[in-house]
Amino acid sequence: MMMMIFFTKFMIFPHLIFFSIFPLFIYDFFIIWFSMEILNFLFIFYLNMNLKYKKIIFLYFLIQILSSFLLLISIILNNFLTTNNLISILMTMSLMMKLSLPPFHLWLPIMSKFLTWNSMFFILTFQKISPFYMLSLLNQNLFIIYMTIFLCSLIPPMMTFNMNNLKIIISYSSINQSSWMIFLIYLKNIIWMKYFMLYLFILWMLTFLIYFFKIFKNFSLSKNFMYNLLIYMFLFNLSGLPPFTFFYLKWYSIFIFMNYSNLFLIFILMMTSSFFMLFIYLNLSINIMYLFSMNSKLIKFNIKNNLTFMPFLIMSLLMSMIIYMI
């Protein structure tokens, strides 16, 4: 058991991070594709060590193999043929499958119910870096982009309404956040990287707290009020509630969108969808607070808990501000 933990921490994790970031320095589609395949097999190996329900790993394997095959075919055709709109559409659709974007999104919510919080974090962040970057290098088809943004804005609020499973809500929230990144990528604005970095950091802190302090086990909070307060802060930040950092980055993105009047309807839809997702997060938080108040005694504060809590609070505030100011 100790050997497995050691191997995971010091062998798998560093390579997962390396092969996620490495494509950002490459412009060749084939090398990016090759690094994504190495990353996929490393992640499948990691899932195999951590998941008891092996059928989910096979589902992930099938999705990635199919999307990788389509992507490889489109890259080969793109190298041997002149620029073709059909090839660009094929590449975009294969990347959409990897990113779990509608209408190829159902595999992610199904998987999320069985994943650990560490696996959830990797599949929603590091696994998406290369496909998003590759998407930014393509000349996207306008209709495909519009339809993707439309579905990413419409489906998550509908599927998560009155849902209490936090993993499924976060997976659909990731799909909803993808609409903002795709829009920024379409406008050829480098701000999408800052948006993704901030999302990655917030999700990392949230999943780390849940995993490390065993919060939300059987849909219950920690007995420590300070940890629960920190969880609420990251949930509200992830939802884009003011005055948290993610809200200001969305606000900045809105000013960018407003310069393109022909995209006004898409922009309104994205704003409406964000408000619905904010309501869903608030509704979930209120339900959890109610359950916590019903099952807990008088809150006790002590110096030890506060000393443990303060580094997380300070680090989260500083890192959020640094990413926003880059």
How would you describe the overall organization of this protein?
With 326 residues, this protein is mainly alpha-helical. It has helices at residues 2-21, 29-50, 54-80, 85-98, 107-112, 117-124, 126-137, 142-160, 166-186, 191-212, 225-239, 245-257, 264-295, 303-325. The protein has one domain (1-325). It has 14 helices and no strands.
Span of the ends, CA to CA:
41 Å
If helices are DSSP runs of H or I spanning 4 or more residues, what is the number of helices?
14
The main β sheet shows up as: none
Taking pLDDT < 50 over at least 5 consecutive residues as the criterion, the unreliable ranges are: 297-305
| Number of separate strands | 0
Features:
membrane; respiratory chain; 326 residues
Furnish the topology, listing elements before pairings.
Blueprint (H helix, E strand, L loop, with lengths): L1 H20 L7 H22 L3 H27 L4 H14 L8 H6 L4 H8 L1 H12 L4 H19 L5 H21 L4 H22 L12 H15 L5 H13 L6 H32 L7 H23 L1
Helix pairs in contact: 1-2, 1-7, 2-3, 2-7, 3-4, 4-7, 6-10, 8-9, 8-13, 9-10, 9-13, 10-11, 10-12, 10-14, 11-13
